[in-house]
Design a protein that fits this description.
81% of the residues lie in helices and 0% in strands. It is mainly alpha-helical. The protein starts with a helix and ends with a helix.
Length: 235
């Protein structure tokens, strides 16, 4: 093989290798730039940081002070005087009747007194019984009203506590839902960024390797020509 032919073959072989390396370098560079673009786009489009509890409201306004509804049902109890007045009137009537009987029959003073005392005792017992019944009825009525008031206040308290608790629970769940959505989106975006970054680094390494392979191809051409020239000159 002549020197020119050998040199030509070396140059062709080197050019083919350099061309392949150059083509691979351009492909890797293009892919690297695309990965960088996607990575920067993902970073710029990241969601804004939010405060999921920003919409939480103060629930204390739902509570109501129910102390004003509690009253003393015994405060306005009155002493019944009707029974006492009836007793006095009937005692007077009994005494008057006794005197009339004494005058009409000519009975002794002792008999009249005994009759008057018996009538007085009978009326007194009736008056006392009526007074005790009225007092007992008033007491039972007051106790019933007191129990009813306590039950109404307790029921109202349970209702308001339930409202506050359920509204607070709904707001807490809503905030937790926003946190979940934010974290899920953030994780997905970070995964995309990491993927594009890894692709960028990989393609950059391929570009460097292709560039080095191209340089080596032309370096081999020069080395081959040098070797051919040395061999042609001889020792």
């Amino acid at each position: 093989m002549g020197i020119a032919t050998a040199i030509g073959a070396a140059v062709v072989s080197g050019a083919v290798g350099a061309g392949k390396a150059h083509k691979e370098m351009r492909r890797a560079r293009s892919a690297k730039n695309e990965a960088k673009f996607q990575m920067e786009t993902a970073r710029q489009n990241r969601q804004d940081i939010i405060n999921p509890y920003a919409g939480v409201t103060d629930l204390s306004g739902l509570a109501t002070d129910l102390s004003s509804q509690i009253t003393n049902p015994f405060n306005n109890m009155q002493v019944s005087t009707a029974a006492a007045e009836m007793q006095a009137e009937q005692s007077d009537m009994a005494l008057a009747n006794t005197l009339d009987t004494l005058e009409a029959t000519g009975a002794s003073a002792g008999g009249a007194t005994a009759l008057a005392m018996a009538a007085l005792k009978s009326k007194k017992d009736v008056a006392l019984s009526l007074e005790q019944q009225e007092a007992k009825n008033a007491e039972l009525k007051a106790q019933g009203e007191q129990a009813a008031q306590q039950q109404r206040v307790a029921a109202r308290t349970r209702f308001e506590e339930s409202q506050i608790r359920e509204k607070g629970r709904a707001e807490e769940l809503e905030a937790q839902g926003e946190i979940f959505e934010f974290q899920a989106q953030e994780a997905r975006t970070n995964a995309d960024i990491n993927m594009y970054q890894s692709m960028y680094q990989g393609f950059a390494a391929q570009q460097n390797q292709a560039s080095l392979a191209r340089a080596n191809a032309w370096g081999n051409v020069a080395s081959s020509i040098g070797n051919i020239a040395t061999a042609a000159v001889g020792p």
